[in-house]
Amino acid sequence: MKKRMISAALVLAMVVPQAATMVQAEEVPTLTLFVDETWWPYDTWEGAIPEEFARRVGVNIEVTRAADSNQLALMVSSGDMPDIICSYRYQYLADENVCYALDELAEEYPDVEFQVDPIYAYVNKAADGHYYTIGCGFSPQYEYDKWDKILTEGPGFMYRQDIAEELGLKFDTLEDLDTAFAAVQEAYPDMTVLAFNPSHKFNWLLQQMGLKNGGYYENEDGQLSWWLRQDGLLDYYKKVNEWYRLGYLTADNFAFQSEDDDKEICVGGKVFANFGYDNHADNYNTAIEENGDEYRFALVTKALSENRKAYNTSAGGRGLYISKSCKNVEAAFKTLAYAYSDEGMKLLMWGIEGEDYTLDEDGYPNFLYDFQGDNSVLQPRGLKYWGWLVHNAIVTSIAEANSESMTAEARRNLTPYLEVNPVIGLIRFETDSDEQNINTKIDEMVNNQQTNIFMADSEEACEEAFHQMLKLAEDIGMSRLEEYANETYPELKAGYDELIEAHEE
Asked: What's the pTM?
């Protein structure tokens, strides 16, 4: 059955008045945008794609990228905020004292068409019953069902293809990693055998072992438990610790603060294998080729364990918010409305149709550039990353359906192992609540304690540090988080299921 382009009415629709594209230069309002991501690759709204977006809406946009993780909190506490904020910090911003509710703005500006599917309104609803953003990366199952080719992105593991071929290495099972690392250490004693990206750490290994890397998971009896209780989690920590004790991992790697630290040593030819994200092999290879080097990274694209499982419990990630400091609320609302429309999402993520991509007869894009290329490919036109402000799951999941890249192959192979439950992502802790404070303290503790586990000087010390982490989590209040989840989950699930059933009717 042939598929067509996603109808904007199915997700988020926006009609920009023709006059908006003809606004005289002196009449064009300027909006300030703060991106609450220190790693964001762009810090100016320039290039053919963002400039075309601004032209269609009729605004100028000035961007500030977060210098550190504390900047947004200081802005909120001071009340001096930019017009639009892009952030994943729902608890800070989904608040009537901080930002405007989008459903209320829709009533105030009826000429701006911003029709939100009820399921999107539900998953973004704050405690006061309003929604302040549309978190990116979420689409309900009935949207997925419209497309035959869906790709599921996730973490990745890559290795130097030239060295693997030279040493006759293969990667068919998890045990093959141990064999390969030992062989590389012997053949190349001056090379770092293994590295990991500080953002994604060893999530690929967790996935191969069928484990979650945070939040809640649903037991067989339908109850929710915190991820630290998973069976097999100790085996994961012991394996990474073993690699560290054998000298495959360096102590310096655990101090990396930026993804650039990891990319630098990989692109520089100093590392055999790396844990990161599934697009890093294609991305890094672009940079390696530009440097004039001959070696390349290969991505492990298949399952190496029968336990492999991917979890998607997200009801949306970062989103755009209109702050109460906004100087031109109507212009900001028009900007969000177009950004969240089907046309706007695809412009920001894919580029301009006919110039950056074409569509096949089923509505899937064929890119005229390397979609997984590094900044030297993407940044001149401002491609892709501005789309990460607002994209739904479909825009990313079908993007490379026709691609033969390693990234696309890995995502095709991961999709059958995906387990989806967005209702778990609806369990949110209110600002300054006991649950939020417990969650924050546990996360901080785990970030510190798991380094001690990974870098323990013996297997016994590793186990001891792991059990100490569990005890600390209990002392902080892990059981209270589970009680809270199981008190709220049934009602949230009932509401979500009711909307899904209504749509299917």
From this structure: 0.85
